[in-house]
């Protein structure tokens, strides 16, 4: 295998690790081997190279798109822009997407893309050129489209890249009515949806809150139930990390530590996340933040400080056999994909810790991507048709109650009661329902089968069963 195919993750490759998790969970199902093999395999792996002009020279870019499972269409998953990206990693992340979508009942198969570059080394024009060319390569091979495969942001990419993809796709498919559904995570002004930007982090916060709401589970960890006052360390101040920290603080937790690649900061009484972000924007580093009582030039040390919950929200393979014995957290909420190596996860679980697994914990992004895709197919924003209708009906009801009871509300009180939902409120409500319900489903699978040791295995069992049912309904398996 070439360097591009091998990913050092845990003791084996990342995809092997995902398959090992799958195999462990498959023991708790009774599906035939052939069906399990089909669910586990990556259906299509497209590896390609294309040239771009950089200054006076030409550079060849390595890129991938992997569609892991076609049990549902379209397939769905982000595009990672990273010089570390490789085929094994993209396959693993595509597989995780299949299981993730199944957990939160999003009707997509899993996919993932990768472009092997460090975006920091390219100008805006070069990044646009790379993104548009990547999209053209996907179009040529039928690896993108609202009913085929729908990319989204991932590490190193965001709304800007998604808007270039949408524009390129539309340019090459003029008149296609649903063209804007070819990619999600688009800017609001370009057929995006309210709430998508913060959805993954909001989902991480809801998942953590839900996990910590079970008194008996928290008692086993020596913690009181609820997020209020819980000390949290977050790794990564990007899209997922920043929003996770923001919403966890909003839900009453105290953000005691923040770790970025250049270093980490800590304060047992709490850090103001926005102030840290502003400081980093100004100085280029989290170090030197006036509100911190400790700082670490070696960012990894930041993960090992006193806390109740650790939220790794940067990259995979951050909690390993090398540092798990120093991790003080009792709960790990996996904002990133694959941040805990299997060996480290086993040790953590054996000592009684709870890992809220990535495939569930960071599923908020794909959930709201699903809502964005639906909005693109409907061609109408959520709430547009019924907001005012609901307000009017509610007002009539309140007026009637006032008349019948003699009670009288102020206009401000009335506004609160009669208000119809905005798109953002509907999106957040759908996200919360999806995350809360999925946590209860996963926990119930674990409770019902005491041999299942952790939530990750339980989540895999639930996903395998759902994907298996799809295949059976297609009539492929009896
Ligand atoms: P991002 O590029 O917005 O942010 C990543 C952050 O991590 C950056 O600020 C970066 O500087 C920091 N970082 C890099 N190396 C680090 C290190 N060694 N220590 C500390 N910080 C480090 O990416 P993102 O979209 O927030 O994605 C982060 C993770 O979440 C990835 O694993 C991604 O696959 C996963 N994820 C993202 C989404 C999404 O909607 N964006 C959805 C699901 C999962």
Folded structure, characterized:
There is one protein chain. With 478 residues, the protein is an alpha/beta fold. The chain has a domain of 175 residues: Rossmann fold, CATH 3.40.50. Helices cover 45% and strands 15% of the residues. Strand 3, helix 3 and strand 4 form a beta-alpha-beta unit. Helix 6 crosses helix 16. The chain is globular. Nicotinamide-adenine-dinucleotide binds next to helix 8 and strand 7.
Query: From the structure provided, what is the oligomeric state, counting identical versus distinct chains?
Result: single chain
Q: What average pLDDT do the residues reach? A: 95
CATH architecture tag of the domain at 14-188 = 3-Layer(aba) Sandwich
Strand tally: 12
User: Structural class, from helix and strand content?
Assistant: alpha/beta
Core attributes:
single chain; 17 helices; alpha/beta; globular; 7-stranded mixed beta sheet; binds nicotinamide-adenine-dinucleotide; 478 residues; Rossmann fold
